[in-house]
Amino acid sequence: MSKILIISGSPRQSSVSIRIANFLTKELEKDPLLEIERIDLRQDFLPPIQKVWSAKDQASDAGKILFSKLERADGILLVSPEYNGSYSSSMKNLLDHFPRPLYENKVFGIATGSTGAMGGMRAAQQLISLVVALFGILSPRLLVTPHMDKKFNAESELIDESFSKNTAVFLKEFLWLLRKIDSGKE
């Protein structure tokens, strides 16, 4: 069974990008061969980083829970809004708390969104660089979501049917890569 961790990168209580994370979670939960966990930065908040927790026992109590989730994950979906041309600082803060070996050789998918026409493309480009720096294995298909407030309603349902192919192909490509990598592990 493959374990996927979905990290929702917006710390805002009124987050719109959480709709993308919720939708992806619901879609992935339909597959009985997947185990889905979540980190929601609206609740799973860490203070600004002072040092990397290189081992679980060095982490705070909250950090130990997050450490375990990262440790168990075979694949990680990063979902972030675009803030001023970048992904959320809360996402960066979270990922920086933990050592690089937690991320190495894990499959990453990137989903971004904005209420504008670019869909978080600049955030996605920076997340690509981050995944490479973490020695993750990036699924080349991105989910870039322009006008995300018009694609997903407040209940995280896809309301723009023309976007359904984008989400389906994104998940298909991510899962294909995840399963190929998982099947090659010893």
From TrEMBL:
SUPFAM superfamilies: Flavoproteins (SSF52218)
Pfam families (UniProt xref): FMN_red (PF03358)
Chain coiled-coil ranges: none
Cleaved signal peptide residues: none
InterPro entries in the record: Flavoprotein-like_sf, FMN_Rdtase-like_dom, NAD(P)H-dep_reductase
GO annotation, cellular component aspect: cytosol
Domain NADPH-dependent FMN reductase-like: start-end pairs: 3-139
GO molecular-function terms, A-Z: FMN binding; oxidoreductase activity
Protein name as annotated: NADPH-dependent FMN reductase-like domain-containing protein
Organism: Rhodonellum psychrophilum GCM71 = DSM 17998
